[in-house]
Each structure stands twice: as structure tokens, then as C-alpha cells.
Amino acid sequence: MVKAFMEFFDQTLEEKHVYDMNQILDSICYGTGYGMTTKEHRYWRDFLRMFVRPELHSPAKPADFRAILEEFVLQTREVFNELLRAVWESLELEESFMEDSLQLKTPNQVLVGNIFPPCPQPELVLGMPPHTDMCLLTLLIQSNAFNGLQAMHDGKWVLVDLVPPTLFIFTGDFLEIVSNGRYKTTLHRVIVSNEHTRISVGTSIAPPLEDVVIAPAPELLSSDSPAIFRGITFKEYTTLKRNHNSTDSTLDVLKL
Ligand SMILES: O=C(O)CCC(=O)C(=O)O
Ligand SMILES: [Fe+2]
């Protein structure tokens, strides 16, 4: 999968710009973070993001991209099923109830390929700003031995050792909501190298965009442990997250 993305990013700008973003929920979208600045940072990244479930969207080129993607989606589907089963068990939640109430037989699965080329002054940029993912779980791989991913742990940025073939799994915002705060979403960011190009491929699993209200599981609630988040659909949350400029977690906005 990493190699397929490498070939995609190696194409000419004209070929890649076919997938320029028109809307945030485009089924395939190519974008760039170069030169984009905030008060604090410049971002150093190109990406291609696509929805792969319930319907698989693939760029037409490179020619074998779709076949590789189909295989990757089949395999990650199994991994997500296993992991979610374990998560529901750890929360003592009925698996079939969770699958039905979150419509996880027809989930929304997104796949993103990111490329972070070498930067002459890596200390002045970030590959990606600190953020959390809009999903239940994210699964991530990287292309080479340069570790760029950092996760916030106990108030410090910790470098994640992702040397291939390591798979890194982390929690997203929806798991924090559904588990009523028992699982915490993972704040993470990306640093870049002055020598190596790094490619990362991340894929996230979530309930469908509409129709499902993502809310704390009723079985986890009692008078001693009331709901700490209000419910929201994935689509509404996308808008909320996009318009949320503060450095606080978007989840705070849902806190009751
Ligand atoms: O490149 C990475 O390791 C992380 C990418 C990421 O956080 C994302 O695509 O949301
Ligand atoms: Fe992320």
C-alpha cells in the first residue's frame, strides 16, 4: 500500500490535481499542507484521502492502485473487527448490540496516504499539527525507519516507534464518546526529517456519516456515572471540527 501511494505521489502535479478538494466530504481528495501557516507552524505534507467503505473509491492511476487498495481494505477490515470486538468486551458491552446501534456492518472507513518530504529546517515545521482523529480507531503504517509520529502521553510528546512492519493502532474521538470517557482519544502530531521522505498510511473506522447518533453507550450510564457527552452524527461532527479553531479538544464542545 505504501508503494502504491509512493507511485501516486510520484505523478505529475496535473495528474494529482484531478483530485483537488472541492468539498470536505469529497470521496477522493488530494491536498497539500506546504506553506500553510498558522501563528506557530508551517505544515509540510501532501495527502490523498479516500472513502473506502461502504463504497471503495480509488484514483484511476497508478493502474494497480485499486487492486492493492481492495486487498488492503479486506485485510484491515478483519483487524478492525477483531479490535472492536476486544474493545466492546473490555467495556462489557454486547458486541451485536454495538454493531447494530453503530451500524458497523456498513461502517465508514477512510484511508489516507501522507507524504512528508525532507525539510531543510525541520525544526521550523510540523508534518501535521496536533490533532485527534474523527473515528473509533485508526490503524497506521509508515514507509521507513524515520519515525515521525508523536503521541501525547502524560503531558509529553512521545515518539512512536513505527519501524515497518509495525502497525500502530490508536483511539479516536468517537471511541471516547461511545465509552463515555473510559477510552481517551489520542492527541498526535507529525514531525519531519531533514534527510528522509516519509510516507504514512492511516485508515480509520467509524459509524456511517449520517443516520447514526454517536453517543455514550446506555449500558455504561447510571446515576453515579451519567453521560458526559451529548450525541452527534459523524457529519455534524465534521462541521464542528472544521469550524473549531481553539486548541482545546473538539470533544470539549460536546461535554455536558
Ligand atoms: O503520519 C502519521 O504518522 C500520522 C498521520 C495522521 O495523523 C493522519 O493522517 O491523521
Ligand atoms: Fe491523525
UniProtKB/TrEMBL annotation:
A Pfam short name: 2OG-FeII_Oxy
Listed PROSITE patterns: FE2OG_OXY
GO molecular function: dioxygenase activity; metal ion binding
Keywords of the record: Dioxygenase, Iron, Metal-binding, Oxidoreductase
Cross-referenced InterPro entries: IPNS-like_FE2OG_OXY, IPNS-like_sf, Oxoglu/Fe-dep_dioxygenase_dom, Plant_2OG-oxidoreductases
Annotated transmembrane regions: none
Origin superkingdom: Eukaryota
Domain Fe2OG dioxygenase: 106-207
Family: Belongs to the iron/ascorbate-dependent oxidoreductase family.
Protein name: Leucoanthocyanidin dioxygenase
